[in-house]
Amino acid sequence: MARKKITIVGAGHVGAHAALWMGLKELGDIVLVDIVEGMPAGKALDIKEASPIEGFDSIITGTNDYKDTEGSDLVVITAGLARKPGMSRSDLIDKNSGIVKAVVENVVKYSPDAHLMVVTNPLDVMVYVAWKVSGLPPHRVVGMAGALDSARLRAFISMELGVSVEDVQAMVIGGHADEMVPLKRYTTVSGIPIEQLMSEEAIQRVMDRTRNAGGEIVSLLKTGSAYYAPSAAVAEMAESILKDKKRIIPCAAYCDGKYGLDGVFVGVPVRLGAGGVEEIIEIELNEEERALFDNSVKAIKGLVAELNL
Ligand code: APR
Question: Which domains does the chain have, with CATH numbers?
Answer without folding.
Answer: 5-143 (3.40.50.720), 146-305 (3.90.110.10)
